[in-house]
Amino acid sequence: MGVVNTVLGPVPADELGVVAVHEALLSVVPGAQYAHDITIDRAEVFATLERELRAFHTAGGGTVVDSTGMFHGRDVRLLEALSRTTGVHLVASTGMGPEALLGGYFLTPQTNPPTPWPAERFADLFGREVAEGMVVPRVERRGAAGLVTTATTRGGRTATDESLLQGVARAALATGAPVSLRIDDVDDLDVVLKEGLPARRVAVVTDDPAAAIDRGAYVVVTDPALVGTLPAERVLLATGGVGVSFGEDAPAASYADLPTALAGDVAHQVLVANPRDLLTIEES
Amino acid sequence: MSHVNTVLGLVPAAELGFVAVHEHIGYGMPGSELDTQWWKTPEQRYEETVPKLRQFHQNAQPYGAATFVDATGICNGRDVSYYQSLSEKTGVHIVASTGFVGGDTALPFFERASVDYLTEQFLHEITVGMGMTGAKAGIIKVGVSRGFLMKELDLRIYRAAARAALATGVPIFTHLAVNAEPAIEIFEDEGLPLDRVLFGHADDGISQGKVRDRWIAEQGGRIGFDTFGYDLELPDPPFWGRPRQERLDHFLGYLRDGLVDSVLASADANCSPLGWPGVKGHTVNYLFDVLIPALHDAGVDDATIRRIFVELPASFLSLQS
Could you tell me if A126 lies within 8 Å of chain B, comparing CB atoms? Predict the structure, then answer.
């Protein structure tokens, strides 16, 4: 049996239990941490997430995957403490996107001309977060990322979005980590698949789930009623909410509802088996 | 009595002494903190920074004190509590900035913000404090995004800066003096006198041919000769470098034409760069080691040097009521 990278280290994949597979535990719009009218009170954030995760655990939940990537409020040390406190496995992600959510370091670097980062550099940055550990900026690396994620721009991917897609695919190929994508068009998924990453290694948030499933990817849905309309072995279910959000309004996540959101065999397939298979680190 | 916001509190302008008006403790593009290739231990950061500041303090003794204006924007690695410790331990006055180096260094949260919100952000940082530090910003940084043309976000930041400058009396620093026409239009529209604006990097290599610095000076703006030391003669000069003598001649032209009150000078050096290699050997002390001797050689007298590095910056940095 393979393992999954959690914030507290590798865990055998069959120990994950019911998985909330595509969540945002802590979401901070890049820059909101510097806003004069926003205070990110760690104690309060911790208390809110602890309450939600305990409720999830009590309801039969085992694992929550934070798919916000490395530049949207990720706080690895906070997640470690939450996991230790609540007994819920937490998986954190690397990656970033779409282009509009990147820092200037990647888009207008101090070179002449200021050429945005190519795919290979993103692949290296993200891959090292799996191979060497996730960064606490300018301080240290912690545990390995369990997922590599990006997103594309609404209305059509940009050139940098394309580099991000390729970089994510290459990082996944090099490390065996799974990928998640929030995409504008199924063509964005094709960019990842063209890199040679098997579609079964990819979970997609998309308006066109049928097309993504045709290609063999998992699709993430947030409405339990949709699950029955799709092949059970290709569907993942998420809450669609955010644990704690800074810098933008977001619906609150209720993880506790997830373990009982589906009934029968499909529940095990969608909430346990599919996330387990996706999250298992493959031999690279 | 005029005062200046430093990271350790309000200081009389008369106490500033020698002012390096556009410098950086450490600068990095937003996101560079994710890339371990630039990381330094805290020991290394202090080791690279403290001796430079102590030397600066020493060099400035004839002027009574040393003041280091850090022009690092909100999202570029600005680290105010670190500046406070450096100032406290070295005796160098440090002035920190609110604002952004340019639209392309403002992170998405601020990119989405209105002029009113940005104005509130700047006002808060100038009158209440930056983050949890309690330190108040002494200048507002604005700038032109890469490409030499003001973008819509740049213009929004300039307008918010003009309003915050008018309300608080702190001056504005621009990153780049190119495409100054829309900037001046905004400042005039908002009623901000142009002598409250330092149009920075008017002397850098890549701006030449694009910057109308004499025209800006005629409108009343201050001209920043603030990249002294980024010389093309260096072994590995940055892309904004310029032949050393050419920059000096450009500067001396202002002095010769009686325009000393239109200029300010600095080195734009990083004590310990955060997200780029920096330029080896280039420090704020270039001003003492190379520039002032070169000015002397060119026949510039001590009174003029004092005017450039003491009197003009003291008046520019003073909070205007």
Answer: no
State whether A34 and B31 contact (CB < 8 Å).
Answer: no
Three-class DSSP category at A226: helix
Residue B121 touches chain A, beta carbons under 8 Å: yes
Which CATH number does the domain housing residue A46 bear? 3.20.20.140
Q: How far apart are CA B310 and CA B60, in angstroms?
A: 10
Question: pLDDT digit string (tens) for A173-218?
Answer: 999 999 999 999 999 999 999 999 999 999 999 999 999 999 999 9
Tens digits of residue pLDDT in A44-73: 999 999 999 999 999 999 999 999 999 999
Summary mean pLDDT of chain B: 97
Is A223 part of any domain?
A: yes
Domains assigned to chain B = 3-317 (3.20.20.140)
Q: Are A89 and A279 in contact (CB under 8 A)?
A: no
pLDDT 10s digits, A227-282 = 999 999 999 999 999 999 999 999 999 999 999 999 999 999 999 999 999 999 99
- For chain B, say whether A41 makes contact (Cβ under 8 Å): no
- Provide ipTM, 2 decimals: 0.97
HSE (side-chain half, CA atoms, 13 Å) at A120? 0
B22's enclosing H/E stretch is strand B18-23
pLDDT band with cut points at 50, 70 and 90 for residue B321: confident
Parent domain of A74: 7-278
CB contact under 8 A, B74 and A34: yes
Is any Cβ of chain B less than 8 angstroms from the Cβ of A131? no
**Strand pairing of A93-94 and A135-136?**
unpaired
Q: Name the domain count of chain A.
A: 1
Residues 6+ apart with CB under 8 A from A47: none
| A179: CB partners within 8 A, 6+ apart | A147, A148, A149, A168, A169, A172, A192, A197, A201, A202, A203
Q: How many CB atoms lie within 10 A of CB B199?
A: 29
In a domain, A1, yes or no: no
